[in-house]
Design a protein that fits this description.
- The chain crosses the membrane at residues 20-47, 63-83, 95-114, 126-145, 167-188.
- Residues 7-144 form the Cytochrome c assembly protein domain.
- Belongs to the CcmC/CycZ/HelC family.
- The chain has 205 residues and is mainly α.
- Helix content is 77%, strand content 0%.
- It has helices at 2-6, 21-48, 51-83, 92-113, 117-139, 141-144, 163-204.
- The longest helix has 42 residues, at 163-204.
- The radius of gyration is 19 Å and the shape is elongated.
Length: 205
């Protein structure tokens, strides 16, 4: 983050605000990958019925939601400085990402409301699949849908980035993916500790 604030040149049309790009886009990528990863874990759970895979899916969804909040926080700041409005209701990518966030919230709400462990894992698995579909549609919003809003096209489809911007962008992509991995491992370890604690309490009672 410090590198992105100090190294690349400033785009004159946006000023310093364009440097949010080096946070916003990589974090959005991870927020979209996370539900897909969770859906793969959920599919394995539906096949094996082993709680380990449900815990992995839950952990992945947790971190995905954290990164999605980062996107919702940084996006309006960048949009207001670049477009003059914090939220463009005509933009397909923004609306689809908002739907993804609602899907993630519904995952946690239903998981919290269902008390039975096996039923909770089963319903969560199907919700993970819906969240993954929402993530894929969000990824494809600027590729498959006629997009009348202000949101730019795919970064990978553009060859116009200067070398300093390109270096900073890919360094940010790698960094936030490592951050996702670290948070994932810590959160999953915490899940195992909580499960072990609950098992001990059940034995004692």
């Amino acid at each position: 983050m410090v590198f992105s604030l100090t190294y690349p040149n400033v785009i004159l049309e946006q000023g310093m605000s364009h440097k949010i790009f080096y946070f916003h886009v990589p974090v959005a990528w991870v927020a979209l990958y996370g539900p897909v990863l969770a859906s793969l874990f959920s599919i394995v759970y539906l096949i094996t019925k082993k709680s380990k895979w449900d815990n992995l899916a839950y952990t992945s969804t947790q971190i995905s939601f954290l990164f999605a909040l980062g996107v919702l926080f940084s996006g309006p700041i960048w949009a207001y400085s670049a477009w003059g409005v914090p939220w463009d209701r005509t933009d397909a990518r923004l609306q689809s990402f908002f739907i993804l966030c609602l899907s993630l919230v519904s995952y946690f709400v239903l998981r919290f409301l269902i008390l039975d462990g096996k039923r909770k894992a089963l319903v969560s698995s199907y919700l993970s699949l819906l969240c993954a579909i929402s993530a894929v549609l969000t990824w494809g919003a600027i590729r498959w849908i006629e997009n009348p809003g202000n949101h730019p096209g795919s970064v990978l489809g553009k060859g116009g980035m200067d070398s300093d911007m390109k270096l900073t962008f890919w360094l940010s992509v790698i960094s936030y993916h490592f951050l996702f991995l670290i948070l994932f491992l810590v959160a999953y370890r915490n899940q195992k500790i909580l499960k072990f604690r609950d098992e001990l309490r059940a034995k004692q009672s």
